[in-house]
Amino acid sequence: MIIKNIETKVKLATFLSAGCLIAAVIMVFSVSFFAYKQVVDARKSVYIMDEANVPLSAKQTDVQMNREAEYRSHIGRFHSLFFSLTPDDRFMEYQMKQAMYLIDESGALQYNNLKERGYFNSILSSSAVLTIRTDSIQIDMPKRYFRYYGTQKIDRRSSAITRSLITEGFLSDLEIRSDNNPHAVLITQWKTIENKDIHHVQKNSF
What is the DSSP string of the chain? Predict the structure, then answer.
């Protein structure tokens, strides 16, 4: 009878030990999983502080939450840099340099083609002022494809021209944001699919 009681106690102790071990393992895995999840969520988020760099009860904002708005801003900024020009060779060079930070080699290709055709020299010789207005930007988020619709005005001494501009391309995310590319996006496979005059007004020569 005593032996049976000892065996029962040993089995009970073994069962309790095994149960405690399993519970401890489950608890460790659970804590590790939630800790890893918090680290991943923290890396995906941006923390907001006030102007004096004093931490407040800041809310976390998921970076991907506002990605489409950032894409639109990036596309609009690139087109403004590339198509808004004044008859100043240093200014045009600065604009093109800033624009090239936002696009891949397809932008440099178009820039070089325009340069070879004397496009920038014609702006200088005619004292033309070019401005671009964004009409709309369509983005296919799953494909990261965009189409840009804009209206460009070319104001010369002798005439004022209004052009319809349509371009398209794709968007590629970068890992690091910088002052020259604050949205960490790169426009790829960019091309102009329409750039035609829609209004032409001659100015008086006197």
Answer: -HHHHHHHHHHHHHHHHHHHHHHHHHHHHHHHHHHHHHHHHHHTEEE---TT----SPPEEEGGGGHHHHHHHHHHHHHHHHH-B-S-HHHHHHHHHHHHTTB-HHHHHHHHHHHHTTHHHHHHHHT-EEEEEEEEEEEETTTTEEEEEEEEEEE-SSEEEEEEEEEEEEEEE-S---SSSTT-EEEEEEEEEEEEEEEEEEPP--
Question: Residue 206: which pLDDT band, with cuts at 50, 70 and 90?
Answer: low
Given a contact cutoff of 8 angstroms between Cβ atoms, the answer to whether 139 and 71 are in contact is: yes
CATH class of this structure's domain 67-202: alpha beta
Say how far apart CA 98 and CA 87 lie, in whole Å.
17
| Closest C-alpha among 135, 133, 92, 90 to residue 111 | 92
pLDDT digits (tens, 9 = 90+) for 56-108: 545 545 556 689 999 999 999 999 999 999 999 999 999 999 999 999 999 99
Q: Taking residues 13-39, what's their average pLDDT?
A: 78
Would you say 186 and 103 are in contact if contact means Cβ atoms under 8 Å apart? Answer: yes
Indicate the domain borders of the chain: 2-43, 67-202
Of 142, 176, 151, 167, residue with least CA distance to 84: 151
pTM: 0.69
Provide the token pair at 76.
């609009």
Instruction: Measure the CA–CA gap between 82 and 109, rounded to whole angstroms.
Output: 13
